[in-house]
Automatic annotation (TrEMBL):
The keyword Glycosyltransferase applies. The keyword Transferase applies. Pfam families: Glyco_transf_9. PANTHER family: LIPOPOLYSACCHARIDE 1,2-N-ACETYLGLUCOSAMINETRANSFERASE-RELATED, TETRAACYLDISACCHARIDE 4'-KINASE-RELATED. This is Glycosyltransferase family 9 protein. Keywords: Glycosyltransferase, Transferase. SUPFAM superfamilies: UDP-Glycosyltransferase/glycogen phosphorylase (SSF53756). InterPro entries: Glyco_trans_9 (IPR002201), LPS_LOS_Heptosyltrfase (IPR051199).
Length: 465
């Protein structure tokens, strides 16, 4: 796409109308926009949840909060929203005299409502993904071929979008800029609870905005009890004020001493607590993305509602139980069983946290990620009789455990492409260090899969059968 006009744009509106985690995953793209031209200013247009990040986004100069009526965040609570409010808002946008607007969306969303709004506000350059020709609504657009032809991580999707108009950055990290006063406040709170500086401790965030992405409370209690007995580390639970009852119920059921900061932390202090923690355990929700942005090792209870929001550029463990209804994109489990999270064994969560605690010293001493023994550690490509492929921990000796194995289907190319989507946790494709076969593998297929792996992925180490 030829876009010389974009290099002249000084005042850019960045539109991401959903939640905090979604905005965080746009920060590498926004950095690329800002760095592409000296003196460029960025304004973030988002929901109240998204614009709450403003003090912690150094690449954003201003924010505008807008409850878009076509978004779930803007249509909830039954609040009155007359069309005249949107007309007035478009007028307010026009008064800002933006040179360009970038509409960031996931592949399950349409950029066209926001594009029309920007068009009516007289913003001359408008960029977004689109499945059909948007004609004048988008001056520059990228054909949206997800999820049919590919599925990228959400961060990479947005980086690719701005790269289409010449805005690129080698720095793919998400951004959450901590403030010294927040770090000082959280250190004081921890010391008041007997958690001295330098002592390992675990932060747990049991809440999530969508019911489909919440690990069951009784399972959280089991995890906390087992983890406390195994490690002896202090455990601190966080959450919003409205989640206090959830957290107190978990604390009451775990049978061990814990600490709660529910309702006591502002967003900056939550970020500080996440940065100071040795390991974070969280559902797939905003604090998980904050942990990724800050580089805190993370065990994510990852509901299989969608594939593109896995932890980005951080030492992490994904915990889930595979289900046929994976990638439902629903806020409430449509099947009613919630098995993708409910069947994750507490012991698996404890094992994941302990493995992260063992790797923390190596990870935080290197900006390029965790160190590992290349002969035994690292991800393994798993191959099965029916053509299923997945990724697991070669060092564990148990590559087919539900939380480590990601069966995809019986199409080899699709399986390897999905592994590419899941990524290596550092913003790149999976770099498989070992090849392992599952029980009763069809060895006639093994070389076929291995050949694909060499073409699609970077494979290091010896083939293991």
């Amino acid at each position: 796409m030829s876009a010389p006009q974009w290099m002249d744009a000084r005042n850019i509106l960045c539109v991401r109308l959903d939640s905090m985690g979604d905005v965080l995953m746009c920060t590498p793209a926004m950095r690329a926009l800002r760095q592409a031209r000296p003196g460029r200013t960025l304004t973030l247009l988002s929901s109240a949840s998204g614009t709450a990040l403003a003090p912690y986004l150094d690449d954003v100069d201003a924010v505008i909060t807008y409850a878009a009526p076509w978004m779930k965040t803007g249509a909830s609570h039954g609040a009155p929203h007359p069309p005249s409010a949107d007309s007035d808002f478009i007028g307010q946008l026009a008064e800002r005299h933006f040179d360009a607007a970038v509409v960031f969306t996931s592949f399950s969303q349409s950029a066209l409502p926001a594009a029309l709004m920007c068009y009516m506000a007289g913003i001359p350059l408008r960029l977004g993904h689109c499945r059909e020709n948007p004609y004048r609504m988008l001056s520059h657009w990228v054909l949206d071929d997800e999820p049919g032809a590919q599925i990228r991580h959400e961060v990479q999707r947005q980086r690719d979008l701005v790269a289409s108009v010449g805005c690129r950055s080698a720095d793919a990290r998400m951004q959450f800029a901590l403030r010294a006063h927040d770090l000082m406040a959280v250190r004081r709170m921890l010391e008041e609870r007997g958690i001295r500086r330098g002592r390992p401790w675990i932060l747990m965030h049991p809440g999530a905005s969508a019911a489909s992405r919440r690990y069951p409370p009784e399972r959280w209690a089991d995890v906390i009890g087992a983890l406390s007995r195994r490690t002896g580390c202090p455990i601190v639970l966080t959450g919003d004020a409205h989640e206090a009852a959830l957290i107190e119920g978990i604390r009451a059921g775990c049978g061990v001493a814990t600490h709660s900061l529910a309702g006591q932390l502002g967003l900056g202090q939550l970020g500080a607590a996440i940065r100071l923690a040795t390991v974070v355990v969280s559902n797939n929700t905003g604090p998980a993305h904050i942990a990724a942005a800050l580089g805190t090792p993370l065990a994510t209870l990852y509901a299989l509602t969608n594939p593109q929001h896995t932890p980005w550029q951080v030492e992490s463990r994904l915990l889930f139980h595979d289900v046929p209804c994976r990638f439902c994109y629903k806020s409430v489990c449509p099947e009613g069983h919630h098995d993708c999270l409910g069947k994750v064994a507490p012991g698996a969560v404890v094992d994941a946290v302990c493995s992260l605690m063992g790797a923390t010293r190596h990870y935080r001493s290197s900006s390029t990620g965790p160190s590992a023994d290349p002969h035994t550690a690292g991800p393994a490509l798993l191959l099965g009789r029916q053509g299923e492929a997945g990724i697991g921990d070669n060092a564990s000796g148990q590559p087919c455990r539900d939380q480590a194995h990601f069966p995809i289907g019986n199409n080899a190319a699709q399986a390897l492409a999905q592994l590419h989507v899941l990524g290596d946790g550092h913003g790149g494709p999976v770099r498989v260090q070992h090849i392992r076969t599952c029980a009763a593998v069809n060895f006639a297929q093994h070389d076929f899969y291995l050949g694909i792996a060499h073409r699609v992925l970077t494979v290091r180490g010896k083939r293991r059968v």
